[in-house]
Amino acid sequence: MTDSFLPAELVEAAARVIEANRAAGRRIAVAESCTGGLVAAALTEIPGSSDVLEASLVTYSNEAKHALLHVSNDVIDTFGAVSIAVAWSMAQGALEVTHADVAVAITGIAGPGGGSEKKPVGTVVFARAERVGDPADVVADKHLFGDIGRSGIRLQAALCALDLLMPVSGDAPGP
Description:
175 residues; alpha/beta; 18% strand
């Protein structure tokens, strides 16, 4: 992928995701906030990615999270947009509105503003939901990348999201 405008490490990670999910017979979806479509851009750099990528929803505003992914306003108001509860709801919502077997959500604070003492710039939360999985089995994580610059935070967040899209032992496609 020498002709990509994206960083090579991002495109290489996306290629691994497409190849592994194609081999597993899985369709994937992404619900992005702070990455603004960067994960989808990386995945679609890979020829034949339409075999695997079902959809990507960029839900940057809280209103979009609610309208497109059915994230409850109460959850957003209670926990904040950058929270495990919201990321999990985003991932579940992506499964609900697509035919994907697995969905990953990303929400965070890329900066330079918007951070707080409890949620500083560089805070990014991820969640993965699987159609055949137990909804009570929450796969979510919070990363504190630090204030490494907006582009650096977005790149690291996209790389983490791609890692979460890799099949794990026992993953199988939906019915």
